[in-house]
Amino acid sequence: xxxFVDTGEIxxxxxxxATGLLDGVTTxxxxxxxxxxNFLELIAEICGVVDGPVSAEVAATDYATMIKEAEKLAAxxxxxxxxxxxxxxxxxxxxxxxxxxxxxNVTLCFSAGQAILAAKAGATFISPFVGRLDDICQxxxxxxxxxxxxxxxxxEFDTEVLVASVRNPTHIIESAKMGADVVTCPPSVIxxxxxxxxxxxxxxxxxxxxxxTGQSIL
Length: 218
Ligand code: G3P
Fold this sequence. Notes:
By secondary structure, the protein is an alpha/beta fold. The chain has one domain: Aldolase class I (TIM Barrel). It is about 50% helix and about 15% strand. The protein has helices at about 10-15, 30-35, 40-50, 65-75, 90-100, 110-120, 130-135, 140-150, 170-175, 185-195, 195-215, and strands at about 1-5, 25, 55, 80-85, 105-110, 125-130, 160-165, 180-185. The chain has an eight-stranded parallel beta barrel with strand order 1-2-3-4-5-6-7-8, surrounded by six helices. β5 (about 105-110), α6 (about 110-120) and β6 (about 125-130) form a beta-alpha-beta unit. α1 (about 10-15) runs parallel beside α3 (about 40-50), α4 packs parallel to α5 (about 90-100) and α6 packs parallel to α8 (about 140-150). The two termini are about 35 Å apart. SN-glycerol-3-phosphate binds near residues 6, 131 and 164.
């Protein structure tokens, strides 16, 4: 399973890249607004830090403008994945850009039917939003299960399932059990994965007992 971080904060990206566990980055217009950074400069900077796919989302909603924005974003670096919304025009942009060899992340997916359309449009990634479905009392993880099952039955679909709107470690673990290809998480959720109270307790005991030996490894 690949780990992407969902943020526009360059310091968080550098911090996670240093762990060696980071496979890519996703951004969206809300995260860019929160960062206060110039979008094009920030994407170029992220692409210099991370080798894997860096999702950069178009801002327009009509085909003619979206395709121009997509071309401009794709020209920033080879590892840019252009992000488009799951609309009729968005999927037309997806088809055109993926036919030209650009990675495309189709975002705002809330149904298995939408995921089928994205795969047929040649999406590199489909981004179903788990947390936002949970927020309206629907089961976001059931959507991941449905998409993984459907995609597995059609070898011609090479779209990767990128689980988005991840809010907690359970979303990650359950998605992994279903065979989802990628999770994109806020930095705080990735950090939560390290934590277990028995790890902290056990380590404290080992450190204390080691001191009692009076030895040093170095
Ligand atoms: O970037 C897309 C997605 O991960 C957004 O998550 O928490 O705003 O629903 P959230």
